Amino acid sequence: MIRVEGLTKYYNDLCAVDQISFDISKGEIMGLLGPNGAGKTTTLQMLTGFLRPTSGSIRVKDYNIDEHSLQIKKLLGYLPESAPLYHDMLVYDYLDYVANIRGINSSKKISRIRYLADLCGIIEVMHKPIGELSKGFKQRVGLAHAMMNDPEILVFDEPTSGLDPNQIIEIRDIIKQIGKEKTIILSTHILSEAEATCDRIVIINQGKIVADDSTEALKQSVKGKNLINISLENVGFESVKQQLLTIDGIEDIVQVNEDNGILNLKLTCRSSADIRGDIYRNIRQTDWILLEIHQEAQTLEKIFRKLTREN
Amino acid sequence: MRQSIHIFKKEFRAYFLSPIAYIVISVFLLITGWFFFTTFFLYNQASLRNFFSLLPIIFSFVVPAVTMRLFSEELNIGSYETLLTMPVTFLDVVLGKYLASVAFITVMLIPTLAYPITVSFLGQLDWGPVTGGYIGAVLLGASFCAIGLFSSSITRNQIIAFIIGMAICFSLVLIDKMLFFLPRISLSFFEYLGADYHFKNISKGIIDSRDILYFLSISFIGLYSTHLVLQEKN
Which end of chain A is more exposed for a tag (fewer CB within 10 A), N or C? Predict the structure, then answer.
């Protein structure tokens, strides 16, 4: 669907994006992750035809961005960071204007605007000036703007930045809903967001790709020591420690807290092997009550920090 | 081309959504009305020559105020990005915005038709120079709009856009008043550069292709430079 090769952008002497290459297939939700100033926005702006790359090529379907940027723009819907829109216009007028520019014929226009207003939850603000809207509503108007022509590819630049937790969840739900049938590229620096919404993650740092894999594979790739949390009842810390340390693979046991006779422990393992079975079998021989056993997943956060803090 | 019509409509309506349009029109009418009628009765002539002779100076303040927001505002709030990622070409954007400002200037001139109508009751008004004057005013406004559009495209600050636009328009108006200081050989060249010189010809009722060509070339240079600036930004 989209093929990016050797994409490079210089701002005068500053290299913002350095030799980036990736492919995106149809129906994929790709997350572009990176610290601030990594070149996420610049990459997206080149993809959407707003900036011209210094070198490298972008192909969307069969179109090359140098020659057919107009055709590519027709296939794309783009929501820039913090949804910059005309403050004086009414929401309805704005969407009407976008529909006109997008070449939606007037018979379908009203139903399309109504559909998008419903999808993005902006029906109650249709007749307010955009400048008076809260940030969450502005973002939704931006979403409606991006989806106006029912594009095959949607590009969102930090769609949830600056929103409150409720709004973040609402926007994410909208993105997931449309992600079922569209190809989506979204940039973010919120890792849980990428983890929750994306099939695939590309991490860039200082203009270079440092990781590019499916979300699951990426989590697998950085293996360290596993941590296992267990909660036990009907037993004291010292005896647990004595017995569990006999299991092969457990390096250390720490008491997190004790609450109403429930003992919460954190076990550090020597390797990444899953030893929850061994622990269970061991506890089964005793009269302790096992309330909870849970292995901490490798979070993206650790991977992200590891990849972006080098040099 | 269809895109530029949509942009034109949107920009033209945008003038009347904010108070700018009403303020600019009121100030324009107030200034022209005041300067025209305070001296009108002294001359004891039924002509609009006074009104038209003031127009280039007044336009060089008013037109940049009208055009200053066209690009600067978009660059400042970032909507320029949403605009350019829609399927539009630079030409669509430049033409749409330019035509909107020219249309606004034309609308602004309509209330001043009250002057010739009033004067025609007071005496024998020659409609030839008046018609020429209005054609010239629109041409002059159009070429100043192109200059204003250019100055708006180079900065995201509306005040800077206004000052640059005003400086260029003002120099074009005053250049043929400064001929006194210039070497004799270059006189006709600088006279030809002056917007006032060409406007004066038209407002006498003489519609000469040279004058029309002058205004059209100023507009073209302004629009072409704007186009170049936009391409450079990309």
Answer: C
